[in-house]
Design a protein that fits this description.
The structure holds two protein chains of two kinds. By secondary structure, chain A is α/β, with parallel strands linked by helices. Chain A is built from two helices and four strands, in the order E-E-H-E-H-E. Chain A is elongated and about 70 Å long. By secondary structure, chain B is an alpha+beta fold. Helices cover 30% and strands 21% of the residues of chain B. In chain B, the strands form six sheets. In chain B, strands 13, 14, 15, 16, 19, 20 and 21 form a seven-stranded mixed beta sheet that branches. In chain B, a hairpin with a 2-residue loop joins strand 5 and strand 6. The longest helix of chain B is centred in the middle third of the chain and has 17 residues. The model of chain B has no long low-confidence stretch (mean pLDDT 96). Classes of the chains: A alpha/beta, B alpha+beta. At the A-B interface, strand 1 of A face helix 5, strand 10, helix 6, strand 12 and helix 8 of B. Strand 1 of chain A pairs antiparallel with strand 10 of chain B, so a sheet runs across the interface.
């Protein structure tokens, strides 16, 4: 047992003790022209209304828009969906509305 | 442990019998090969060259319960031992006559220092501390230890018990599972929680070791995809995990299913509910204002756990209704908000009381929103008696409530009743149930007086949000 100095106590860390690896952000896009942009609807009510308009504006600026949708807003996006977006898109907009 | 052949005696100064037998020990030292171990004073017995066992290593290795203990070793193994002073036995064991002529024939010994309460923790840590994998953090002598727990962000807002290695080791004695066994992947950070990590948080929460299996089962249930603790934490809604405990363990550990079952005052109810929230906070990293985005929250997010009164229930247990065999213990987790009362002091007919339940249940979330929120109905004994007297069981009551909660679309479309909230106009001609199939849970608890039951409203129901999840406790015992 480790000796402790008088009056001190040892406790065990109740946290997950995560070691976070820092990852750099992907480079920012200089322009939307000719870029593929994913638009992810998290399935909140009327999110589609908002994202329809966002998609129009993106298309008008020359971007190719790909639409995606999470099965439910209450859970993280499934890994397959995240992988698909990462594979096909150069940028992504995730949004909700209520 | 290798001990020399011959006679071994373990003594301590703080024992009148040990002091009394010093002349006998001198006789043994003279006439045989004697090794003396002293537990508390390296100078005792004077002149007999005692071996220092103030670390108690030898006493523990020999499993000494009483001092003095006399042992004969041969070929490196113990042959025979006797505890306390007993002339006949000492003479038989040593093969020497005339021992302690001035002593009475026998005198009981004293408790071994290795069993003293003040050294048990230290011994426990020395023996098993190396099995603990969690980071050890030293809290300085100038820090108030309870304040230090707050300062490190480990508290839910109330004081917590510092999780010292000894406390965690004692907590781990509440389960037969290895500390390294994995219980769950805890959201939102998706961190692996071992039995040990859950035990550390159970200490923080104030649990006793016998509560740990219930906490482990609850953590396992909460971290399933169906229950969706991630979304439940992240939601702006009021809800948090509500634990209904069933089975023999609830009685064994003294959980409350009677008066004030949903309230304060019962340690296992309060600390088990608190422990699971601390696991999500500390292991999962889920904290209010961060991933927890609750608009208002509710006080049950500190702890919301109770046992079902099974013996007095005409409905069978909630766990049994969810497939748990009779005689087994289980927890059912429900994503619930606060408690609202159902008052009906007049109904003596089950049909009337069922309609009262239905009328109040309709308001869960909003009276014009069907199939959006589950609910947990906690029927009190005085209300349950009305159904029991009429021969109604769980299925009958549920069917009656369901029948009374078929909502005409025209009453619940947007704008109906002058209220904008509601279902789309296209559903005006439909009839919609308030609860999805399986969306209403029923439990029985409470004190013997009061014609009040309780509704605990749910959160987003089903695969879109949270399914109630039941897990047996036995695998974690």
């Amino acid at each position: 047992m480790a000796l402790t100095t008088a009056g001190s106590i040892v406790v065990l860390d109740p946290t997950g003790e995560r070691q976070l690896a820092g990852r750099p952000r992907a480079p920012r896009l200089a322009s939307l022209e000719g870029r593929t942009i994913g638009v992810l609807d998290i399935s909140k009510a009327r999110g589609d209304v908002f994202l329809d308009r966002v998609s129009e504006l993106l298309t008008a600026r020359g971007a190719e828009v790909r639409r995606y949708r999470k099965p439910t807003f209450t859970k993280p996006a499934p890994p397959d969906l995240r992988a698909e977006i990462a594979e096909h898109c150069e940028g992504v907009i995730e949004a909700l509305a209520d | 442990m290798d001990l020399a052949d011959g006679l071994v005696v373990i003594v301590k100064r703080d024992c009148a019998t040990c002091v009394a037998v010093v002349p006998v020990l001198a006789q043994l030292a003279e006439r045989a090969h004697l090794t003396l171990y002293t537990q508390d004073d390296v100078g005792f017995p004077e002149g007999l060259s005692p071996v220092d066992d103030t670390s108690l290593d030898v006493s523990l290795a020999l499993d000494i319960e009483t001092v003095p203990t006399l042992i004969r070793m041969e070929g490196g193994a113990e042959v025979v031992r006797t505890a306390g002073w007993h002339r006949e036995r000492w003479e038989a064991l040593t093969g020497l006559a005339g021992l302690g002529p001035d002593l009475p024939p026998s005198r009981p010994g004293c408790g071994s220092r290795s069993l003293d309460a003040d050294v048990l923790d230290e011994i426990l840590v020395r023996r098993r501390g190396a099995t603990l994998a969690s980071r050890h953090i030293e809290v300085g002598g100038l820090e108030d230890e309870l304040e230090a727990m707050f300062d490190r962000g480990w508290s839910d807002g109330l004081p917590v018990i510092p999780p010292t290695p000894a406390r965690v080791l004692r907590m781990l004695e509440g389960t037969s599972r290895a500390p390294s066994d994995i219980v769950a992947i805890v959201p939102p950070d998706l961190v692996t929680a071992t039995v040990e990590k859950v035990a550390v948080n159970a200490v923080l929460a104030g649990c006793r070791p016998e509560h740990l299996p219930v906490v482990l089962a609850a953590v396992e249930a909460a971290c399933t995809d169906e229950f969706n603790a991630h979304g439940l934490l992240a939601t702006t809604y009021f809800s948090g995990p509500v634990i209904v405990a069933n089975g023999p363990i609830t009685r064994r550990i003294g959980m409350n299913s009677g008066g004030n079952a949903l309230g304060q005052g019962n340690r296992p109810n309060l600390t088990i509910g608190r422990a699971i929230q601390l696991v999500i906070r500390n292991v999962g990293g889920g904290r209010p204002g961060e991933v927890d985005r609750a608009t208002l929250g509710n006080p049950g997010k500190l702890s919301f756990c109770f046992a079902e009164d099974e013996d007095g229930s005409p409905f069978g247990s909630l766990a049994a209704s969810r497939g748990v065999p009779e005689g087994r213990s289980a927890v059912t987790l429900f994503a619930g908000e606060g408690v609202r009362g159902v008052v009906d002091q007049i109904s003596r007919e089950p049909e009337s009381l069922a309609r009262s339940f239905a009328a109040c249940l309709r308001t869960v979330g909003h009276p014009k929103l069907p199939m959006a929120f589950d609910a947990l109905l906690v029927v009190s004994p005085e209300h349950a008696r009305v159904f029991a007297d009429a021969g109604w069981d769980r299925a009958r009551l549920m069917a009656e409530i369901d029948g009374a909660l078929q909502l005409p679309g025209r009453e619940i479309v947007r704008g109906a009743g002058g209220i904008a909230e509601g279902v789309p106009e296209s559903l005006a001609d439909a009839t919609l149930p308030k609860f999805r199939p399986g969306g209403l849970l029923l439990a029985h608890a409470g004190g013997g007086a009061g014609m009040f039951s309780a509704i605990i409203g749910g959160w987003v129901s089903g695969s879109m949000g949270s399914e109630p999840v039941t897990r047996e406790v036995e695998p974690w015992l």
